[in-house]
Design a protein that fits this description.
The complex is a heterodimer. Chain A has a single domain (3-73), classed as Roll (SH3 type barrels), CATH 2.30.30. Chain A contains 2 helices and 5 strands; from the N terminus they run βαβββαβ. Chain A has helices at 21-29, 63-66; strands spanning 11-17, 37-43, 50-54, 57-61, 69-72. A 5-stranded antiparallel sheet of chain A has the order 4-3-2-1-5. Chain B has 4 domains: 4-173, Rossmann fold, CATH 3.40.50; 181-276, Helix Hairpins (Orthogonal Bundle); 284-541 and 600-725, no CATH class; 544-593, no CATH class. In chain B, the strands form 2 sheets. In chain B, strands 2-3-1-4-5-7 form a 6-stranded mixed sheet, with helices on both faces. In chain B, strands 6-8 form a two-stranded antiparallel sheet. In chain B, helix 3 (96-108) links the parallel strand 4 (86-92) and strand 5 (113-118). Chain B is elongated, with a radius of gyration of 32 Å. The chains are: A alpha+beta, B alpha/beta. Chain A binds chain B through residues 19, 21-31, 33-34, 41-49, 51, 55-62, 64-65, and chain B through 63-64, 66, 68, 94-98, 101, 253, 255-256, 259-260, 263, 286, 289-290, 293-296, 298-299, 387-388, 390-392, 394, 400, 492-500. Bound molecules: guanosine-5'-triphosphate and magnesium ion. The site of guanosine-5'-triphosphate has 26 residues of chain B, from helix 1 and helix 4.
Amino acid sequence: MLLSEMKEGQTGIINRVGGKSALRRRVLEMGVLKGSEIYIEKYAPLKDPLELIVKGYHLSLRVEEAAQITVEDVK
Amino acid sequence: MSQKSLTIALAGNPNSGKTTIFNNITGTRQKVGNWPGVTVEKKEGIVSKYGYELKIIDLPGTYSLTPFSIEEIVARDFVLDECPDVVIDIIDASNLERSLYLATQLREIDCKVLFALNMADVARTRGIKIDADKLSELLDLPIVFTIGNKSEGIDELLKKAIELAESDVDTSGKRKVKYNKDIENSISKLRSFIEKNSEISLPYKTRWTIIKLLENDKIVRERVLQKVGDQGRNVIQEVQIHRELLADRFNDDPEIVMTDERYGFIAGILKEVFTTITKQRIDISRNIDLVLTNRFIGFPVFIFFIWAMFQLTFSLGVYPMEWLDTGVNWFSVSLDGLLPDSLLKDLLINGVIAGVGSVIVFLPNILILFFCIALFEDTGYMSRAAFLMDRIMHLIGLHGKSFIPMLMGFGCSVPAIMATRTLESEKDRILTILITPFMSCSAKLPIYIVLTGIFFSAKAGNVIFCIYFAGIIIAILAGRLFRSTLLRGADAPFVMELPPYRVPMVKSLIIHMWDRSKMFLKKMGGVILIGSVVIWTLSAFPRNIQYSRDYIAEINSVRASYNTEIIAANGLDSQHIEKKLDAAIAELEMARKSEMMEKSYMGRIGKILAPVFAPLGIDWRGGVALLTGFVAKEIVVSTMGILYLAEGEGSNTLKNALLSSDMTPLSALAMMVFVLLYLPCIATVATIKQETGSFKWTLFSVTYSTLLAWVAAFCVYQGGKILGL
Ligand SMILES: Nc1nc2c(ncn2[C@@H]2O[C@H](COP(=O)(O)OP(=O)(O)OP(=O)(O)O)[C@@H](O)[C@H]2O)c(=O)[nH]1
Ligand SMILES: [Mg+2]
């Protein structure tokens, strides 16, 4: 499942992070990498960007970028 | 005996409290705020402590040593090139795992590192327990718990830092990330390739350079090519072979694999030192955010905050402003009574007080505005504004983060333009720099208040709000236009940390206001004072003007004829006649002053400008005032004060003087539109030059904004006239 398809309040485990190399590295460096658990806190009022909790802090990403990330074990 | 000096750099993730600790140690007041990317330049401070001269460097925050934006490059370059004696890694203890990522990289460059586990209070309330002894043992480095905003642990931190600097530990032997077999294999092969060749002397430590080259770090690669010369190319070639090998082996880029491995290493450490008591406690910050970024009320609340900021600025600011105004008037009147008529008195009253006094009364309004912006910054709402606005900014091809400089622009354009450094893409930065001056800065506020107060009295607040709003709309439209013409391309991805809300520190808010006041008063005592004197001088000289009429003779003859009338009336109606006499004399005086002003140096300059401003409904005095605004926007009001006041005999307020001039509500509106858009002040222009590094962009920014201002004001004035306003 794509991260961008997850709903508010769902958790999941990151499976793969894709995307262009510079961004991809930054996202990984921020802790969004294979095996990390993430929680979708909310979507912004205009449905973009989204806010997620990873490694205990809040991070916001655009839906476009979240669509490059696949997650598993979504609950 | 001279003290031994040590350099201590404060590095760490954005928003971890580096500047707070820097201020604590050095006693300075660098800007602190609760959003990532407050500090964008390195700042130095020197203190003498424990028998040492300590040079403390506050660095911009960075998530990793592979930088993404320019302020991160500054941080990395400093640590690498200047080799500070000690690097203190300021770690947000409530955010340990991610913070350790940078820490592992700092370890790799073999400098002396020490951890400050800052925000220990936050970590505690979140139920996080960190076994510092164990962590210290595992990583073999000193660790100190600190609470930056309460100065707890700072002394111990410094002592440990000095101790570390003086010890002669061999950092290269310390525990670092060990990568998997294949990567380590490549590293050692590359190492022997480099060591075999004695001609190669790398700019940085060997292992670190190899790692960065394997990670395809462009900046390091270029430095190696530069420094090593021909042999450098061979090294890069060799690295490329290994990169491909590794990419084949892992089916992914080596830098990605290495990031994974670092986090793996961190996970291993965390298992031993980190525990959380997961009693589900209420997270206040999250609850606040549920409201403030709520799907339905998020935007209304946001607009309300902006509206409230301006509302407070005007309605609350009006009272102290009136007190100050009364004070200034009283001062002017008593000075008038005290001093004998002379050129000096003229200079003091019509130059200095008219000029400086007309602006200084706005200090309260400006302070309130800055206070509100500081609240946004300190509570953590700033990043939420970026979060909310990202979608809208994306429409114009910009970034939510661009909204932070724009909001700061309501205060002052200079720091706002500097704040664009956190934007990753160069085009985004230039675009943001080009539109930020349209966010009307606090120095323009006095102009709006004066003009709306006089010409729109009851509707003043709404008119000003519309002006500000027009600024935002024009900024957005201009952004859209540039994005599709001059600065084509997509905006950078939006990846931003949202820090928890924090209660702003009253002390730091007060200090901030105090500093602002000092800055404002300094400006009044400096640029504005000098400017006022210059403008007065230009308008008071030359003294020996060839008048077109002989005013003195005319006045005398008027007096004589009225006198005979009074005598003839024989005391019957003398009061009435005397009044008429005074009026007749005042009229002549005014005509004389007006002619004198027009023939003064200032008037001659004004005459040249007049044709430019006439189509906008602005007379030559207004034109001159706008021109002087290039020095600083406040001076527009000073100049108006001097030029209009000098003429209006008997009307000791700018209000009466302006009302009796040719200015109408429509031309006042045109003037405000012009002020909103036209060329920024000299300090801003210098900042634009510095930040874009390009003379062309600076020139472009200055000309297009001025042209736009003229066209917009023209449309307002002429359009309004057609509509019969
Ligand atoms: N609760 C708590 N807050 C802190 C502590 N230290 C700093 N803060 C707050 O954290 C926020 C960030 O502080 P800064 O000093 O601006 O952080 P910085 O690391 O310089 O940030 P950048 O310049 O953006 O990289 C501010 O709101 C501080 O008041 C602490 O120990 N405890
Ligand atoms: Mg800082």
